[in-house]
Amino acid sequence: MATIVTGGTGFVASNIVRELASSGHEVVSIDIKDPDDMVRRYLEPGASNVTWVTADILDADALARAVDGRDVTKIVHAAVYTAIRDDIEHDDSRRIVDINVAGTANMLDLARKIGVQRLLYVSSNSVYEGNDFANLLREDMAVQPRRLYGISKYASELFARRYGELHGFETVSVRLASPYGPMERVTGHRVVMSMTHHWTGQAVRGETIDAVQGGPWDFTFVLDTAAGIRTVLDAPELPHDVYNLAKGVPIMTNDMVAAIREAHPSVTVNESPDNSAPMLSSSTRGRVADTSRLTDDLGFTASHDMAAGLQAYIDWRQEYGYMV
Question: Do residue 63 and residue 186 come from a single domain?
């Protein structure tokens, strides 16, 4: 029995592949790109359980060939165009819709044809865009995302739910909150980097970090994200079909400064930068998730605090020579 992971060479999905393969899943990674040396090195602990398939999720025939002869029982659909900046949304509007909506439709149709047991859709807290962020974000809130990225994620949740109802397989959507950590890097489908990417890069390069005041953010260490995905995917029963997956702890700039100083004591931080310093990751500011549903239903809680996560991120950068 095999588990498909789409987008398996990407940031979050490569961590999902690593988590699943190391836990005994036979993983078939479907991605438009071949895995490069960094991906293969990162996945080495579970490499014997991973099959790499190069295929475009927009090509239904290629997807059919990818699963031909395989006993696929589960799918994690994580492939996405992370286009959360206004200029990218403007310039690549159709590409966002194609990859994030038509690609999801193709994976759902594939799930129908091969008769999977469960499909997990990797969604985002971008669906909450436009909500009142004064309170924790709950899965039962009404959502009305305004940007194409958030719209495409919520639409895919709804498509997944209805496809499962119509065709007799279980679906669940998991809304991620600001993942950070190993394997976050610029790719053709991930061009907007997190504040933690910038700060850890500056730390390992010995540069001064301009700590513009802001927040709160709900940063979640990506290996916790991957572990949460595995927990939902493998749960014997799922009381709900939507889960927030986050640390669920509001992080302000001062918290980030304290955490990165603990993780990398030699770092230099300018805590009073002038107004020209950029405010990074502002698109996710204010979105802090209520994680009680995942904890109550399945007993999962993200384990890394900010300092531990940044330490692991910096260690990975130094080990892999990733200084960007």
Answer: no
Residues 129 and 194 in one domain: no
pLDDT computed for residue 275 by the predictor: 59
Q: Could you read off the pLDDT of 212-270 as tens digits, one per residue?
A: 888 999 999 999 999 999 999 999 999 999 999 999 999 999 999 999 999 999 999 99
Domain containing residue 143: CATH number: 3.40.50.720
The pLDDT tens digits of the residues spanning 136-192 come to 999 999 999 999 999 999 999 999 999 999 999 999 999 999 999 999 987 765 667
Instruction: Take residue 78 and report the two structure tokens written for it.
Output: 């994580």
Find the DSSP H helices in the chain.
Answer: 11-22, 37-42, 60-67, 86-91, 93-97, 103-114, 148-167, 195-205, 222-234, 253-263, 292-298, 306-320
Q: Domain range for residue 62?
A: 2-177+221-245
Residues 7 and 145 grouped into a single domain: yes
- Report yes or no: 153 and 160 within 8 Å, Cβ to Cβ: no
The answer to whether residues 26 and 129 belong to one domain is yes
Report how far residue 75's alpha carbon sits from residue 65's, in angstroms, rounded to the nearest whole number: 16
Are 33 and 10 a contacting pair, CB within 8 Å?
Answer: no
The CA-atom distances, in angstroms, between 244 and each of 126, 138, 176 are 11, 8, 6
In the chain, the number of structural domains is 2
**118 and 74 together in one domain:** yes
**CB distance 32 to 103 below 8 Å:** no
The two structure tokens encoding residue 203: 């730390």
- Interacting residues of 106 by C-beta distance below 8 A, sequence separation 6+: 57, 58, 59, 60, 63
Share of the chain above pLDDT 70, in %: 95
Residue 277 — very low, low, confident or very high, per pLDDT cuts 50/70/90?
low
Range 265-268, long-range pairs (CB < 8 A, 24+ positions): 266/206, 267/202, 267/203, 267/209, 268/206, 268/207, 268/208, 268/209
Task: Return the half-sphere exposure (C-beta side, CA atoms, 13 A cut-off) of residue 121.
Answer: 32
